[in-house]
From TrEMBL:
Pfam families: Cupin_7. It comes from the Bacteria. This is Anti-sigma factor, putative, ChrR family. InterPro entries: ChrR-like_cupin_dom (IPR025979), RmlC-like_jellyroll (IPR014710), RmlC_Cupin_sf (IPR011051). Residues 20-116 form the ChrR-like cupin domain. SUPFAM superfamilies: RmlC-like cupins (SSF51182).
Amino acid sequence: MQNQQNKTNASNVSDTLSRYIDVDALPWKPTPTKGIDMKILLEQPETGLLTALFRWEPGTTLPLHEHVEIEQTYVLSGSIVDDEGEALEGQFVWRPSGNRHIAHSPNGALVICFFLKPNKFLDGKLAGQELK
């Protein structure tokens, strides 16, 4: 059986077999934003395709960033808030290419996100970095 890292990396997929991932066995990895960790479920570095779980600590703010392509988020627990609205547990939000915002999680959250390309940070010490 393949190790977990090879199963989540889709860059060398040359066959049509399904990939089954033991999500509990995957490590939480820090993101550039303190208070937000991620588990990568599927990644294709060449294209920017990414599916990941994000765990937000209570009170965490994701600085100003741009969605380079469509981003989709389903809230598993908690909530995510920005100036356009709030996505609560069990709700889904998608953002079009070019959308810019600052996101906040007052009480923490667990979300699954689907990216076609990484977000780009636009402000402060993270300006120019991609969310990977």
